[in-house]
Amino acid sequence: MAAIAEFLAAEHRGCDESFASAEEAAQAGDLARCRAVFQRFQAEMERHFQKEEDALFPAFEQASGNAMGPTRVMRLEHRQMRETLAGMEGALAGGDLADFLGQAEALLILMQQHNIKEEQILYPMCDRLLGSAVGSVIQAMRDLAAR
Q1: 58 three-class SS
Q2: Could you list the pLDDT tens digit for every one of the 147 residues in the chain?
Q3: What does pTM read for this prediction?
Q4: What letter does residue 121 receive in the DSSP assignment?
Q5: Architecture of domain 4-146
């Protein structure tokens, strides 16, 4: 049986790789490449957030009867990361790679802390709580990505 923990942790790794590529381009002073790679990374992050917010979190909340617990915290952290991503996008629009890299440091810390909470706590809780519905939740997340 597929597991939410494996499915979404793999997405975290993919996002991490795209993020590292954007940072490398910025450190090399390649603004055009940084913009292109960052745009891909930002889209990957948004798709990942949407899968969680539109499919996983509602399923967890319905099964647990709790919308004020870990999913609320994750949504707040998604908002923080979206704000930082918007700042990074603005830095790139202005051609400021130093500002981009400064904000990238903050985003890296946010992502690392967030991913640990999801991978070590929330995803395993989802796998246990959702039980036989795990496959349908993963399919719902795949369907969202296909849009």
Answers
A1: helix
A2: 569 999 999 999 999 999 999 999 999 999 999 999 999 999 999 999 999 999 999 999 999 998 888 999 999 999 999 999 999 999 999 999 999 999 999 999 999 999 999 999 999 999 999 999 999 999 999 998 777
A3: 0.94
A4: I
A5: Up-down Bundle (1.20)
Of 114, 111, 107, which Cα lies nearest the Cα of 88?
A: 107
The candidate with the shortest Cα–Cα distance to 42, out of 96, 109, 99, 111, is 111
Q: List all residues 6 or more positions away from 13 whose beta carbon is below 8 Å from its beta carbon.
A: none
In the three-class reduction of DSSP (H, G, I as helix; E, B as strand; rest coil), residue 67 is classed as coil
- How far apart are alpha carbons 72 and 77 in whole angstroms? 9
Which of 42, 25, 22, 32 lies closest to 86, judged by CA? 42
